[in-house]
Write a structure and sequence with these properties.
The complex is a heterodimer of chains A (368) and B (332).
Chain A lengths: L7 H26 L4 H13 L2 H26 L7 H19 L5 H30 L3 H23 L22 H4 L13 H18 L1 H11 L1 H6 L4 H28 L10 H11 L4 H24 L5 H17 L5 H18 L1
Helix pairs in contact in A: 1-14, 2-3, 2-13, 3-8, 3-11, 3-12, 3-13, 4-5, 4-6, 4-11, 4-12, 5-6, 5-11, 8-9, 9-11, 12-13, 13-14
Chain B lengths: L1 H18 L8 E3 L10 H16 L4 E3 L6 H11 L5 E4 L4 H10 L5 E4 L8 E6 L1 H15 L4 E8 L2 H17 L4 E8 L8 H13 L4 E5 L3 H11 L3 E6 L10 E7 L1 H13 L6 E5 L6 E3 L11 H16 L7 H4 L5
Parallel strand pairs in B: 1-2, 1-3, 3-4, 4-5, 5-11, 6-7, 6-8, 8-9, 9-10
Antiparallel strand pairs in B: 10-12
Classes of the chains: A mainly alpha (368), B alpha/beta (332).
Keywords (chain A): Cell membrane, Membrane, Transmembrane, Transmembrane helix
Subcellular location (chain A): Cell membrane
GO molecular function (chain A): transmembrane transporter activity
């Protein structure tokens, strides 16, 4: 383990910052290559994501999605499992949300519908993650393979259901009917006095997401189950020797992970679109992996990383709006570079920093 | 070079302003998730806007979506900046157009492939089933085995509409013909998977098909490639794709999204804007089949006569091509 070699602030603050700067530096070179000013691009990106109420609203809206999917990946990480099926789990979670909203929206207000929608989303997501988890635990089928395959099964199932079963007849778009008031979460603009997020769809789900962060922190670091999850992740053999049931741990972890991913659907389906439609996940599940990596699988880190990716999403949209030469594919390149430096190349600068701090510490130690 | 171009563009804009009073429109296009260079549906919209730029010198703005939440955001961004008219491409934009058009009643909106009933929205839908019927007839006449194929993109009602019209056309020529249907996938990737498109086409060839029609966006590039490689015939869609493999593309079912976009811009420029409901079928030239030097050798006089007759009969109402969307069902 490399932790302990560096002061905590370097590990958690400086290294992510250096990675981020490096990513933006390379992105800047790409922007220069296509003949635009990188300074202007950064200005537009930051102004677009944080410069005005609606921009902040959109940033937080995207961040809500990333918090849920990031937490999902992080919980599985702690048990040494790599759940890359957040995409499918969120998609199926939408089914639970839609079921609650379609059944209840005419009858009760939103705050009665919400618990059912949350439970529906979590249950459906958990059920979708249960099968890969169970197969991993009892048959050794690797979750990386099974969860990604389950993404495709989820997509097929949802298209089938939306086109043939629950979709609105006569509509080109495979989608359910639009929910009425009782199936819509309130926008934060409307419930927090004095805050103006314009028309941004940031909604009550953000509060649910932050509650989920606290829940995950309590689960992983303050409960017996969390201890089992962490022990199993650190060393499965030792954990089994210590009497931890591996099947139970894997299955429960995967279900919690899937449930969190499923809850992302609340933000999109009940919070923003107010209907279940095809392809509403559009990659948030996969970005969750980057968010969890960058946030070091810790809720605080995940919130910060989710906001960063929210900024990239919202600022990126403004960027391609303001500077048409920077297309959406360029935005994907910039996002990809951030993921590359923050996730995959995370250890690129570490050895240098370790040496740097070791050489600084060594004379001090000698003097002491 | 770039400066020179900018200057000449500025000069032409100034000239345009001086010559025409109503020319100061700021048109905008919002593409669907497929992106503007999908070699098909969205690209047709792009080429319409591009042609308008070349003809009039009037610049337009466009935007490519990354996710569903950006639909409303992009429309509002356009409207707020005084863009007018704003053309939204694709049925998925309907909800967003409905919301934003109500917020900006003085801005003209147009939506392709869906109907939004507001006083400032022009809804343009196409009768894809009619065009598909015609290419279905061509396929059945060109086929020697009596077996033809269809490769769709994503399995959604719109694509079933293509498939159903096609099948009806095939059966109208040869009641014993077999039509193989495959959809490429269930995610958005199904519009952009030429490898899988090619594999599906090959499997249909293995089962005896010798003509295959695609309605699959960029996936269809692989379908047409596979047809050319196997010495069979492909049929293109949306844009005229006859030139992709001259001699191997029997025809293309053209859907004039480009004309719809051009027309919307042009009407706004000439103060001729009309809102409401436009259905473009064979009669209106909204859908058609493509005949050019690339496929002239493949289409016999007999085929031309037969489709010309069918076209007249469809226009006159003598032949009714079944619209899948009317009852979510294909009776063939």
């Amino acid at each position: 383990m490399s932790t302990g070699q560096l002061p905590r602030w370097v590990d958690l603050g400086l290294i992510p910052l250096i990675n981020l700067v490096a990513a933006f530096f390379v992105s800047g070179l790409v922007v220069i290559l296509i003949g635009e000013s990188p300074v202007e691009a950064v200005q537009v990106l930051i102004w677009g994501s944080l410069g005005f109420g609606e921009g902040i609203g959109f940033t937080l809206f995207y961040a809500t999605n990333f918090i849920f999917t990031g937490l999902a990946v992080a919980v599985a990480f702690h048990a040494g499992l790599f759940n890359i099926g957040g995409e499918g789990q969120a998609y199926i979670g939408g089914l639970g949300v839609a079921a609650a909203c379609l059944l209840l929206d005419h009858i009760v207000p939103w705050w009665v519908t919400m618990p059912f929608a949350v439970a529906g989303a979590a249950l459906m997501g958990a059920a979708w993650a249960f099968i890969p988890g169970y197969l991993q635990a009892t048959r050794g089928s690797h979750v990386v393979i099974t969860t990604i395959m389950f993404n495709f099964i989820a997509a097929s199932l949802m298209v089938y259901l939306l086109v043939n079963v629950i979709g609105e007849a006569g509509s080109m778009q495979p989608e359910t009917r639009t929910f009425v008031e009782g199936g819509r979460l309130p926008f934060l603009t409307d419930i927090i006095p004095g805050v103006d997020f314009g028309t941004a769809p940031v909604n009550f789900s953000l509060i649910l997401a932050l509650l989920a962060c606290i829940g995950v922190w309590l689960l992983i670091w303050r409960t017996r189950l969390g201890y089992e999850i962490r022990s199993y992740g650190a060393n499965p053999d030792a954990a089994v020797y210590a009497g931890i049931n591996p099947v139970r741990t894997i299955v429960i972890t995967m279900m919690i992970s899937g449930g969190l991913a499923g809850m992302m659907a609340i933000n999109e389906v009940m919070g923003s679109q107010h209907r279940l439609l095809i392809e509403f996940v559009t990659g948030y599940g996969f970005v969750g992996i980057a968010v969890a990596l960058m946030g070091r699988a810790h809720p605080v880190g995940i919130v910060l990383a989710a906001i960063l990716f929210g900024m990239l999403y919202q600022g990126g949209a403004e960027l391609s709006f303001e500077i048409p030469a920077i297309t959406r594919d360029m935005i994907v390149v910039i996002q990809g570079l951030v993921i590359l430096f923050a996730g995959a190349l995370e250890y690129m600068f570490r050895p240098t920093l370790v040496r740097l701090f070791a050489s600084r510490r060594a004379p001090a130690a000698a003097a002491g | 070079m770039k400066k020179l171009f900018a200057m000449s563009a500025a000069a032409s804009v100034m000239l345009a302003c001086a010559s025409a009073l109503a020319a100061d429109i700021q048109p905008a296009v919002l593409y669907d998730l497929g992106g503007k260079f999908d070699k098909s549906f969205n690209e047709a919209a792009h080429s319409g806007a591009q042609r308008f730029l070349e003809d009039t010198g009037i610049e337009y703005r466009d935007f490519e979506l990354q996710n569903d939440s950006q639909r409303e955001q992009a429309l509002r961004n356009f409207a707020r900046r005084g863009m007018n008219p704003i053309v939204a491409i694709g049925f998925s934009q309907a909800n967003a157009v409905e919301k934003v058009a109500a917020e900006y009643p003085d801005t003209q909106f147009a939506i392709v492939d869906m109907v939004v009933d507001l006083p400032n929205v022009r809804s343009i839908v196409f009768k894809e089933h009619e065009g598909s019927y015609i290419v279905g007839m061509l396929a059945a006449m060109a086929s020697e085995t009596g077996k033809v194929g269809f490769v769709g993109g994503m399995d959604i009602p719109l694509i079933r509409k293509f498939a159903c019209g096609y099948k009806q056309g095939v059966l109208a020529v040869n009641a014993d013909a077999e039509v193989f249907q495959n959809m490429t996938g269930t995610t958005g990737a199904a519009w952009n998977d030429p490898v899988k498109g090619g594999e599906l086409a090959k499997s249909q060839f293995d089962r005896g098909a010798d003509v295959v029609y695609h309605a699959a966006g960029a996936t269809g590039i692989g379908v047409l490639q596979a047809a050319a490689d196997a010495g069979k015939l492909g049929i293109g869609v949306d844009s005229n794709q006859n030139g992709l493999h001259p001699g191997s593309v029997l025809s293309s079912m053209i859907k004039r999204v480009d004309v719809a976009v051009y027309q919307a811009f042009d009407d706004a420029k000439n103060d001729n804007w009309t809102s409401g409901f436009e259905v473009l079928g064979l009669a209106e030239g909204g859908v058609d089949w493509a005949l050019d030097e690339n496929n002239a050798a493949l289409v016999t006089e007999e085929m031309k006569a037969a489709v010309a007759q069918a076209k007249n009969q469809i226009i006159s109402g003598e032949i009714v091509v079944h619209d899948y969307m009317s009852d979510q069902n294909c009776p063939f």
